[in-house]
Design a protein that fits this description.
This protein is α/β, with parallel strands linked by helices. The protein is 38% helix and 15% strand. The protein has twelve helices and 17 strands. The strands form four sheets. The protein has a seven-stranded mixed beta sheet. A four-stranded antiparallel beta sheet has the order 3-6-5-4. It has a four-stranded mixed beta sheet with strand order 14-11-12-15, covered by helices on one side. Helix 3 runs antiparallel to helix 6 and helix 4 packs antiparallel against helix 5. The chain is globular, with a radius of gyration of 21 Å. Bound molecules: 5-S-methyl-1-O-phosphono-5-thio-D-ribulose.
Length: 414
């Protein structure tokens, strides 16, 4: 476990390893009042364990909090925590209490709304300056998933449009921010559902599907991206056989994907990361569906470390690899995968985390990149809410983004 988070405007906040047992300020448990709605919901959640019945990220105005499921406790414990301060939000994102590109974006949008609500001034320029301080701070929590800066930029646009262009009072800006944050959240549900519809056209009932990391319900608000076709297929009797890579070092596949799919009644088999070749060689996998954190203009995609290896193995066995990505994950300003900044995380995640005893010699050099880039040549299609982009991606992604622009006020967006 890690602790991190200092309020800095520019540059990275100080990050240091957490001493075992030390207090981490990344949100407090919600629903402490046993009579409260949240406590009741939490009890129900504990009982059914079906994540699909609960949103991963939500706004609780009464408590003045962004409410998240603490994903670091899964699958052992289902607990929701309330994030109220900038530091709590930053830490929750950095510590992966909330993780997955879309879920991070939604958390940041709801979080900055709450922080903006707390800015005590009616002077626009003073308000804007503080807003930008919060924005830059939250944006520094994780670098690879573009959804974080995408959501924060979208919130900033609201401030500038309402305040600087239209000269509206600060109170109106706060209201507009609330609306935008809730819209970003609702949009995520619609977008993932639509990705599910497109994804489902790529597979047949009874197919074996392999996935890596967790691009599931827990990584979004409700359906997931790579899991959306699986959940829709489940509703429609497709009876898929899903293989979930455990996903070293943080085990998102084992702890989260295997957990949420099995709770939802999906036939899921957990495999170690080095077993994908084995199941593909046996003809047990007809398609690979993965999520992603950033799609570059040429179709290279960054996703959880190990995805590129799965894609290379899949190419050898002629299994198509589909990357599921909302258009909020497409970054046409990044020309290719080499330009994507890859987050590096602490060595302890590899050597100590999850083990009773350290599993590596003390002081050994460790390299722990959290993501890798899958070359566009290994990708059969990028499944978005506006259709499936195919090679040449330079063209098809541009077309998809144009559709997204046009649809902003009458398509999926609003
Ligand atoms: O480090 P994580 O757990 O945030 O990494 C998550 C992934 O790599 C997901 O596959 C990606 O964010 C897509 S989530 C729909």
């Amino acid at each position: 476990m890690l602790t991190a988070g200092r309020m800095t405007v520019r540059g990275s906040p100080v990050r240091k390893m957490r001493e075992p047992g030390a207090e981490v300020r990344a949100g407090k448990r919600c629903g402490i009042n046993a009579e409260g709605k949240e406590a009741q919901e939490e009890a129900a959640l504990q009982e059914t364990g079906n994540i699909m019945e609960y949103d991963t990220v939500a706004l609780d105005e009464e408590q003045g909090a962004v409410v998240i499921i603490d994903q670091t406790l899964l699958p052992g414990r289902m607990e929701r925590i309330c994030l109220r301060t900038a530091e709590e939000i930053w830490n929750a994102i950095y510590l992966l209490k909330v993780r997955g590109a879309p879920a991070i974006g939604v958390t940041a949008a709801l979080g900055i709304y709450l922080l903006a609500k707390g800015i005590r001034t009616e002077d626009f320029e003073v308000f804007y300056k503080e807003f930008v301080t919060y924005k830059e701070y939250l944006d520094s929590a994780r670098p690879t998933a573009v959804n974080l800066s995408w959501a924060l930029k979208r919130m900033e646009r609201v401030v500038l449009e309402k305040g600087r262009e239209q000269g509206q009072p600060v109170e109106e800006i706060r209201q507009a921010l609330r609306q935008e944050a809730l819209e970003i959240r609702e949009e995520d549900i619609r977008v993932c559902h639509q990705i599910g519809e497109y994804g489902l056209t790529l597979v047949q009932p009874g197919d074996g599907i392999l996935t890596h990391c967790n691009a599931g319900s827990l990584a979004t608000v409700r359906y997931g991206t790579a899991t959306a076709p699986i959940y829709l297929g489940q509703e429609r009797g497709y009876r898929f056989h899903v293989f979930a890579d455990e996903t070293r070092p943080l085990l998102q596949g084992a702890r989260l994907t295997a957990f949420e799919l099995s709770k939802a009644g999906v036939d899921v088999t957990l495999i170690c990361d080095n077993m994908s070749g084995s199941v593909m060689a046996k003809g047990m996998v007809q398609a690979v569906f993965v999520g992603c954190d950033r799609v570059a203009a040429n179709g290279d995609t960054a996703n959880k470390i190990g995805t590129s290896v799965v894609a290379m193995v899949a190419k050898y066995y002629r299994v198509p690899v589909y990357v599921c990505a909302p258009t909020s994950t497409i970054d046409l300003d990044t020309p290719n995968g080499a330009s994507i900044r890859i987050e590096e995380r602490p060595a302890a995640e590899v050597t100590d985390m999850w083990y009773r005893e350290p599993m590596a010699p003390e002081g050994v050099k460790v390299y722990n990149p959290a993501f890798d880039v899958t070359d566009h040549e290994l990708i059969a299609g990028i499944v978005t809410e506006y259709g499936i982009a195919r090679a040449p991606f330079g063209e098809s992604l541009g077309q998809i983004m144009e559709k997204a622009e046009r649809a902003t006020y009458n398509g999926i967006r609003k």
